[in-house]
């Protein structure tokens, strides 16, 4: 895998994981009872973005490391999948 491809794959993976992590631990103003007049009642009280960015980076690095290892081992090649699924090339 080329370095540019690896960076691009990690970048896309990081954003996918970020959007999966964003809803965790969010409490709206209505749920917490701390509603500010004139604001959206569904707005989060404390989004905890730094924690989510750290978790996103850690989870993305783990997923990327596992997939890079699988790629280097040959489990993510077209030849391997056609053999496993019994498909002709």
Structural write-up:
This protein has 89 residues and is mainly α. It has one domain. The chain is built from four helices and no strands. The longest helix has 25 residues, at 49-73.
How many distinct beta strands? 0
Number of domains: 1
Q: What shape does the CA trace take? A: elongated
Which range does the strand content fall in?
Answer: under 5%
Q: What sequence of helices (H) and strands (E) makes up the elements?
A: HHHH
Could you estimate the helical fraction of the residues in percent? 55-70%
Q: Point out poorly predicted stretches.
A: none
Tally of DSSP helical segments: 4
Estimated radius of gyration: 20 Å
Largest sheet: none
Q: What class, by secondary structure content?
A: mainly alpha
The mean pLDDT is: 89
Distance, first to last CA: 22 Å
Write the layout of secondary structure elements.
Layout lengths: L2 H19 L7 H4 L16 H25 L4 H8 L4
Helix pairs in contact: 1-3
Question: Could you give a quick summary of the protein structure above?
Answer:
By secondary structure, the chain is an all-alpha fold. Helix content is 63%, strand content 0%.
Primary descriptors:
single chain, 89 residues, mainly alpha, 4 helices, elongated
């Amino acid at each position: 895998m080329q370095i540019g491809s690896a960076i691009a794959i990690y970048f896309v993976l990081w954003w996918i994981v970020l959007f999966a992590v964003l809803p965790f631990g969010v409490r709206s103003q209505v749920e917490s009872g701390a509603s500010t007049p004139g604001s959206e009642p569904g707005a989060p009280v404390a989004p905890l973005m730094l924690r989510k960015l750290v978790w996103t980076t850690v989870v993305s690095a783990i997923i990327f490391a596992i997939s890079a290892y699988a790629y280097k081992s040959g489990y993510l090649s077209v030849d391997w999948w056609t053999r496993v699924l019994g498909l002709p090339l």
